[in-house]
Amino acid sequence: MPSLEFTSRGNEIAINGAADSVAQAKEILTFLWRKIQKKQDVTTHEIDAALRFHNKNDSPDKKTEKTKIMTDEKSGFKTYKNKLISPRSPNQAYYINAIKGNDMVFGIGPAGTGKTFLAVAAAVQMFQAGEIERMVFCRPAVEAGENLGFLPGDMLEKIDPYLRPIYDALNEMMPADEVPKKIESGEIEIAPLAFMRGRTLKNAFVVLDEAQNTTAMQMKMFLTRMGEGTRMVITGDPSQIDLPPGTQSGLKEAMSILRDVEEVPFVHFDAKDVVRHKLVTKIIEAYDKHDFRNRS
Fold it and tell me: What is the pTM of this model?
């Protein structure tokens, strides 16, 4: 958005600048005011999200639709602290809708785009609503430049630190003391992908994280574990494969094989969807340019 000048006069704000930019700024401020009226949080994150959503080239109907998505509680998830987690980019909104409307969804894109967090949030919401009986979270036991063999403990203890993003998301959505209780009761299962072999997962919400590090055989094994009443979300970043050289990524193969299956949507994120520090977006874009030059 081009440079604008804001002046506060009591309870009014005057905006000076190019007409189209002033109109866009007015829409964003109006949207943020509506969130305040609904007693929803307005932080720098919400301001950043508003900038992502509001495009001055959108039609009036499109603008109304986007505003509804960002303020409607049904478009997001409620934490146990009654905090609304709403989409922070159009792709996040599409991802949430895809998860709510389909039994299997792939979330593809770089780190920091909310793929795993939103999948865990959806799992907790469905569990609390009684739509599923348990939540299962897993990832392949592949080192990202480290060596699991030198870490202390058994396989579960070795992989536990790698599953920390899932624990963090669970603790955001439900009281921290509830998580270990539900793990003990079996209502929450967090395990390496290898533990899924030979099982049929029924009435569960299953999340496979870091799916780019599955082999083709592992991915097929996982996808065919799906039983009655089960939802699956598969997340991964094809640019961060840690498999041995020459090993085909199960995620990449699935993207090719299942691309024409209408009931299995693939939601693609890019650097513009990153919701971490704004510098992360620039880092990802720089690496993408570097990789493109090397391929060329």
Answer: 0.76
